[in-house]
Structure formats: structure tokens, C-alpha cells
Amino acid sequence: MKQISRLIILLILFFSCTSNKIIQEGSQSRSPEKKVVKEKIVFLFAGQSNMDGRANGAELSESDLQRLKNVAPRIQFYYNHQTVTPLQLTTPAKYTQRKFNLEKSFGPELFFGIELAEKYPEEEFIFIKRAKGGTSLYGCWNPYWAAEKAALMKELDQPKLFEDFISYSNEVLEKYDPSEYKIAGMLWVQGEADSGIKKWGPKPAETYGENLQHLIDEVRKNFKQAKLPFMLFQVGHGKVVEGMEKVAGADPNVFLIPQSRNKKSPDFYEKNPPPIGHYTAKSMKRIGKAFFGVYSDILFDNK
């Protein structure tokens, strides 16, 4: 009788353990695996016409266009509130098409993007660009916008571009979970408008460095990145350039790409002759590559 009792107890223990094991294994098999989300790398672009892009897309070679085609699917391009597309040439306003005798144009983002995506073929990117020709930092790009400053620059009828740029960027990024992206830097091409002392007086040029620092501070504050890298291309002249140099010299995370008027200098960038002005396709291609060089050599590889 005792033997029968022991056998019954052993059978109960055996089936109990087996049942618990099956339940545990079933529970484990139903547990979803944690999905690893690969971050998209975000770049912000802002400024006036040479950021917007006045380079003629028709002057690009077949090789250039093929390179663009190869990388474009990995770069989501948000441009001036238009529908998002892969990185591409842009269609300017009819006035700009007539003035510059072009149908498609591009700015620094094109070859910055091509070089970037080619060097880092496993990465995906988001480009957000807000740019408008003829606009000033003193007036409508000023993060501390004031009616009297906008009036001086005759920009009271222009949008408050800094505010619009921030809201546009936030609107784009709200489409993504914060774990899905990382803001890697901002590219800024602006300063020509503020350099016009004969037209506006000395104040916009003299305060350019101060206003640029305010812009950088407010962008970093908005995106909660105290050391967000800023890359500047030197445009304008006089006090505007001095302001750029001062800001870049004081902040290790602000980088200035120099420009020279000496045609023999490696820092010379050819423009179209007056009255058209603005950078040629060849120069704009170099500007995009110069921005990439700063990011790749100084920022990305040293992280």
C-alpha cells in the first residue's frame, strides 16, 4: 500500500512539473521580441537664396544624377512646407526660373546629401530645409523678432522665418518617435542681406554676430541639444563676416567654411555675373561637399 502511495505522489509531482514547464515555454514563445529601432540622422538647413539654391540643375552631369538616384531613397527631403520627397532637385518659383534661366535648381543639401549617404551607406537621413531669398537675420530670421527691425529691412510683409522654421521642423519630427531620430547638425547660409550698409544702415551688419549667436542658442534650446553643431558658409562681407568669425571662434561646435574673393584661392567660389549673381552649379556642388567635409572630418568621425 505504501508503494502504491509513493507511486501516486511521484506521478503527481511529474505531471505538475511538466505542466509548469509547458506553461512557461508557452508564455516565453508568446512574448514579443523587443524591436530595435535604427535612428534616422536629421540635418536642418536654413538661410536665404544661396541656401534655397539658385544653381542650375541642368548643368549636372549624368554621373552626378546617377549618384543622386542611388542615394535619394535613403534621404527624406522636407523642403519649405512642400510634400516630402526623396532628395531631389527643386522647382523654383516662376520668377526665379525666368531670372536665372533654369527649370530645376539645387542648394547645398544636394551634394552634402550625396557625399554623406555614399560614405555612410547603412544610414538613413532626414533633411529639413526652410529658406527664402533676400531675407535678413536682423529682420525676419531674428529669433527675437521686432516690428521696428523688420520695418528697417522692409520685411514686415515677410513671414517670421525663425518662428516658422522651428514650428516646421517640430511638425516634421512629430511624425517620428523620439527614439527614431537624432539631430546631428544645422547648416546655415545667410548674411548677404545684412551686409547692405548703403541700403539699410550699419545696424544689421554690426549686430550680425550677436543675432547669429541668438539664433544658435534658440535652436539648441528648442531641440534640447546644448552642443548641437552648426556649420556656416561665409557669405556677405564686412561686419557680417566678422560676426561669423567671432561666433565660430568662441564656440567649438560652430564651424565656418571660409570664402575668398581671390580667384586663385582654393576658397574662391565662382558666381554668375551681375545682375544675376549667386553661385554657379559648379560652386554650389563644392559648397555642398565643403559642408560634408566639415561634418565628416570634424564631427562624425570624432564622436
What would you report as the Rg, rounded to the nearest angstrom? 27 Å
SS field, number of helical segments: 12
The count of DSSP E runs of length 2 or more, i.e. the number of strands, is 9
For the record, what is the CATH homologous superfamily label?
A: SGNH hydrolase
CATH architecture: 3-Layer(aba) Sandwich
The total tally of domains equals 1
CATH class category name: Alpha Beta
Beta percentage is: 5-15%
- The chain-level structural class is alpha/beta
Structural shape: globular
Question: What is the arithmetic mean of pLDDT?
Answer: 90
Uncertain residue ranges: 1-31
The main pleated sheet reads as: 7 strands, mixed
How helical, in percent, are the residues? 40-55%
**End-to-end distance, in Å?**
76 Å
The CATH topology turns out to be: Rossmann fold
Placed side by side, the strands forming the largest sheet appear as 4-3-6-1-7-8-9
Please provide the ordered H/E string of secondary-structure elements. Answer: HEHEHEEHEHEHHEHHHEHEH
Set down the secondary structure blueprint.
Blueprint: H1 2-30, E1 40-47, H2 49-52, E2 55-56, H3 62-71, E3 75-79, E4 85-86, H4 94-100, E5 105-106, H5 109-119, E6 125-131, H6 147-152, H7 161-173, E7 181-189, H8 197-200, H9 203-206, H10 208-223, E8 230-233, H11 239-250, E9 254-257, H12 281-299
Parallel strand pairs: 1-6, 1-7, 3-6, 7-8, 8-9
Antiparallel strand pairs: 2-5, 3-4
Helix pairs in contact: 5-12, 10-11
